[in-house]
Amino acid sequence: MGENIFLMIAGLVIASAFWVVFSPNLIHSAVSLLFTLFGTAGLYVFLYADFIAATQVVIYVGGILVLIIFGVMLTNRIDTPSIAAGSANQFIGGIGAFAIFVMQIGVIFNTPWQIGNNQSRETTVDTIGKLLLNEYLLPFEIVSILLLAALMGAALLSRRN
Q1: Is the pLDDT assigned to residue 30 strictly greater than 90?
Q2: C-alpha to C-alpha distance for 115 and 103, rounded to whole angstroms
Q3: CATH number, position 73
Q4: b vs e for 101-120, b when ≥16 Cβ sit within 10 Å of the residue's Cβ?
Q5: What is the pLDDT of residue 27?
Q6: Are 21 and 32 within 8 A, CB to CB?
């Protein structure tokens, strides 16, 4: 049962990712990206990475995808978008992408995957929370101050004179 659900989610991710790339309509690409990102979160759930799955949904689906859709819908030239661009480097890029694909296939088939139900009782959220509030408290606070400064700088730059 679990294998069938995994294969369905993996097929959804692959099919929607291809549709993101090859769709002639930008809105269809954005909706396909929604399915790709949700499917990726589903694959994280199968890896028992519940925190990363929730982060995937909140950040990518909830934030970035909505931003992309608003950007596409607020564009003035949405009727006839011309995104076709010829480049001499497409062939080299295709070879590079194929080489990375072959390396990924090699890693997949040469990795000794552990199969079984040896899941620990402690979830990833518990582990990350304990590490953030104990061992990495100072870097966590420094990053929060840095993000606050970036937010204040963005607000200052966006003000009109």
Answers
A1: no
A2: 23
A3: 1.20.120.1200
A4: eeeeeeeeeeeeeeeeeeee
A5: 81
A6: no
Provide the percentage of residues in the chain whose pLDDT is more than 90.
Answer: 25
| C-alpha R_g of the chain | 21
Number of domains present in the structure of the chain:
2
Query: Going by C-beta distance under 8 Å and a sequence separation of 6 or more, which residues neighbour residue 147?
Result: none
Which domain does 50 fall in, by range? 1-77
In this structure, the answer to whether residues 72 and 2 fall within a common structural domain is yes
Give 74's Cβ-side CA count (13 Å radius): 6
pLDDT band, very low/low/confident/very high, at 70 (cuts 50, 70, 90):
confident
- Kindly state whether residue 51 falls inside one of the protein's structural domains: yes
**What tokens appear for 150 in the block?**
């970036």
129 and 71 in a common domain: no
Res. 44: pLDDT tops 60 = yes
Whether residue 98 lies inside any domain: the answer is no
pLDDT value at 119 more than 70: no
Decide which of 13, 48, 77 is a domain's last residue: 77
Residue 38, C-beta contacts closer than 8 angstroms, at least 6 positions apart: 57, 61
CA 30 to CA 1: how far, in whole Å?
A: 30
